[in-house]
Task: inverse folding
């Protein structure tokens, strides 16, 4: 939140002493109010340490097995074969999940939209999923974390969504850390996102990773900037 600069003006002065007869009192000139200093905008490119020169490690995107809630899951990049899994994942969302993830409500994940979201150039943008293998051997998608490189090529906008029954297990934290690691390898000093003001768990995760929050005027959302340099 921007700091407010308050300026205090001294009260009007008074002349003490006798007034000379025959002379008109001096006309008081109104003091010119001081200029209001504009609030300093937060600039993540200066606030956070810059990333070293890009030097990508391909192993960062290799599938890995992680335990969440004591059960094995796979964290890996999304691909074209995950189109149907993404549609099923979306259909599991409550209206509140859709609002917090997208900021508005839409009724369906069409095949065309799902195809765009899974068929990603992972060398430019990034789209990761967390999967669990069902009894029939099929992978079930439980979470997605992604970033979209902005036009400057110096940062990217990220977003996350986790199945309601899988929250509180550390899945979103794991996705965020991979996104930050890959972004840093690609020469980015920070990632940013929009988060609803009532999404306390997501705000807490961002803060634990050094995130800086900035309110969006006229909206029930905030911008958050997270440095890629992590302890």
Result:
């Amino acid at each position: 939140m921007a700091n407010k600069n308050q300026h205090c003006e001294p009260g009007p002065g008074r002349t003490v002493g006798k007034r000379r007869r025959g002379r008109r009192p001096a006309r008081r000139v109104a003091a010119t109010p001081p200029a209001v200093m504009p609030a300093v905008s937060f600039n993540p490119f200066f606030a956070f340490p810059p990333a070293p020169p890009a030097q990508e490690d391909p192993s960062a995107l290799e599938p890995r097995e992680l335990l969440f809630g004591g059960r094995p899951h796979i964290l890996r990049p999304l691909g074209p074969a995950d189109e149907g899994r993404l549609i099923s994942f979306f259909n599991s969302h409550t209206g509140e999940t859709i609002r917090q993830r997208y900021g508005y409500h839409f009724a369906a994940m069409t095949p065309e939209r799902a195809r765009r979201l899974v068929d990603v150039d992972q060398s430019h943008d990034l789209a990761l999923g967390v999967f669990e293998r069902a009894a029939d051997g099929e992978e079930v998608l439980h979470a997605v974390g992604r970033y979209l490189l902005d036009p400057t090529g110096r940062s990217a906008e990220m977003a996350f969504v986790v199945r309601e029954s899988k929250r509180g297990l550390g899945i979103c934290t794991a996705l965020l850390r991979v996104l930050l690691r890959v972004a840093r390898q690609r020469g980015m000093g920070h990632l940013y996102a929009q988060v609803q003001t009532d999404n306390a768990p997501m705000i807490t995760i961002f803060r634990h990773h050094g995130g800086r929050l900035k309110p969006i005027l006229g909206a029930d959302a905030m911008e958050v900037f997270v440095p890629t340099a992590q302890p």
Summary: The radius of gyration is 26 Å.
